[in-house]
Amino acid sequence: MRDATASKSPETLDAVALVDGMARRARAAGRKLAQLPAEAKTAGLMAAAAAIRAATPAILEANAIDLERGRKLGLTPALLDRLALDAGRIEGIAQAVETVAALPDPVNTVAAEWTRPNGMVIQRVRVPIGVIGIIYESRPNVTADAGALCLRSGNAVILRGGSEALNSSRAIHAAFVAGIETAGLPADAVQLVPVADRSVVGALLAAQDLIDVIVPRGGKSLVARVQAEARVPVLAHLDGNNHTYVDGAADPDKAVAIVKNAKMRRTGICGASETVLVDRKAAALLPRLVTTLIEAGCEVRGDETVQAVDARVKPAIAADWDTEYLDAIVAMKMVDGVDEAIAHVERHGSHHTDAIVTEDPIAAEKFLNGVDSAIVMVNASTQFADGGEFGFGAEIGISTGRLHARGPVGAEQLTTMKYLVRGTGQIRP
């Protein structure tokens, strides 16, 4: 298979024309999609899942090219893990598409209905946003997840994946589109930018009359660029500088298991905990927490109290409290109770996902109400910060903003509202 990352140079690529053509085709396809019954979209998604399964050999071949190139470029183990596919992960991608297919169709659902004193009946209903642009980095599964969620919610989508996963994304996209076409859905409803040229990102961000919303999914530098340059509304997904706080009333076994899982299950995902805060009342548990993490292959960077319990702990510096490592590294700090833990999260967190481990319901409620993050958990691993785990089938990111959607962005969050007013001849005096 040819390496698709070899793309046109800025001198030969007209990025504005490319995006203009894709967006206009997407708009036309979106109008058709918005009129389809839920059953037609369900059939298309099921066909897409079957096509992805059937294309497993081709997807693995494409992924091997991306992995080889990634190693040559010096990608970190965490980034390579995000990029890597095997038969099991491809099956997971197909299953995620099927799960989205099984979700209730949010389009045209009535969120509220009321009758005014003059007899007018008003409904607030969910409708597609329109054309969505999604810019993402090294996870090829996003190609299918985003395509499925946008299709389920009646939106057309333009996908711009990262260059490190372009071959994999193209193979998945080809299978996805082949599947929906067999079910009679428009192929242009799910388009993938065919080149890795960065100028296309700028063209997408400037396409304010053609694209209705941009969703960035990736690292801080990508999101920062999108927010700085976009002339299109942005549904932002910021970094996951997440915390797990072990309260003085924590169950020791539960705390150790949750902390280990939250950090080490998959270190390269946005739901991984990057800082562990430990109540001084739980100081006796500190050596066990540190040992468990180090023996699991995690580097621990701690304050003076944490350093004192194990010579293998490295000194934490100020930057550690603000760092999303996406690697087998964790910062650990002692705090004086839940109030100081909340203050630390507010000062250093990214408002993504934070958790408390405690058997004290008062402390739990204080943490739930005091932490201003998109997801706040009690006695559960932060790695559950995932649309699939929330029952959304999949997600295109965790929104850390406060407008429109917050938390996992699934099919329902990709709709907007429309008011339908039915009268019997009323005029306004």
Q: Brief overview, please?
A:
The chain folds into 2 domains: 15-237 and 397-421, Aldehyde Dehydrogenase, Chain A, domain 1; 242-384, Aldehyde Dehydrogenase, Chain A, domain 2.
Question: What do you see in this structure?
Answer:
Helix content is 41%, strand content 18%. It is α/β, with parallel strands linked by helices and 429 residues long. The chain has two domains: 15-237 and 397-421, 3-Layer(aba) Sandwich (Aldehyde Dehydrogenase, Chain A, domain 1), CATH 3.40.605.10; 242-384, Aldehyde Dehydrogenase, Chain A, domain 2, CATH 3.40.309. The strands form four sheets. A seven-stranded parallel beta sheet has the order 10-9-11-8-7-12-13, sandwiched between helices. β7, α10 (252-264) and β8 form a beta-alpha-beta unit. The radius of gyration is 23 Å and the shape is globular. The N and C termini lie far apart (70 Å).
CATH architecture descriptor of the largest domain: 3-Layer(aba) Sandwich
- Strand adjacency order, main sheet: 10-9-11-8-7-12-13
Quote the beta fraction.
Answer: 15-25%
Radius of gyration: 23 Å
CATH topology of the largest domain: Aldehyde Dehydrogenase, Chain A, domain 1
Anisotropy-based shape: globular
Return the structural class: alpha/beta
Name the helicity range: 40-55%
Number of helices: 14
| Averaged pLDDT | 92
| Biggest sheet overview | 7 strands, parallel
CATH superfamily of the largest domain: Aldehyde Dehydrogenase, Chain A, domain 1
The count of DSSP E runs of length 2 or more, i.e. the number of strands, is: 16
Low-confidence segments, given as residue ranges, are none
CATH class of the largest domain: Alpha Beta
